[in-house]
Amino acid sequence: MPLCPTCGKEVYFAERVSSLGKDWHRGCLRCTKCNKTLTPGGHAERKGQPYCHKPCYAAEFGPKGFGHGGITESHKY
Question: Which H, E and C letters describe the chain, residue by residue?
Fold first, then answer.
């Protein structure tokens, strides 16, 4: 029986959600930053951790500069 990467408990077939090559409980597949519940294939991944596409992944790892990610109208060179 596979173990959930978030809570470490066994994941039974009826409650299994597969994503990032792992089996999760439906409620345990959440964004690493904002804790929003995610759907399989409907999120981004960075170093094995799930993130929602917007705003978390875009803000953390997207392009920086005027009007892109981070704080609105921020400048980063």
Answer: CCECCCCCCECCHHHEEEECCEEEEHHHCECCCCCCECCCCCCEEECCEEECHHHHHHHHHCCCECCECCCCCCCCC
Residue that wins the pLDDT comparison between 70 and 26 = 26
Q: How many CB atoms lie within 10 A of CB 63?
A: 10
- On whether the pTM is more than 0.85, the answer is no
Strand partners, 50: 45
Give the chain's mean pLDDT.
83
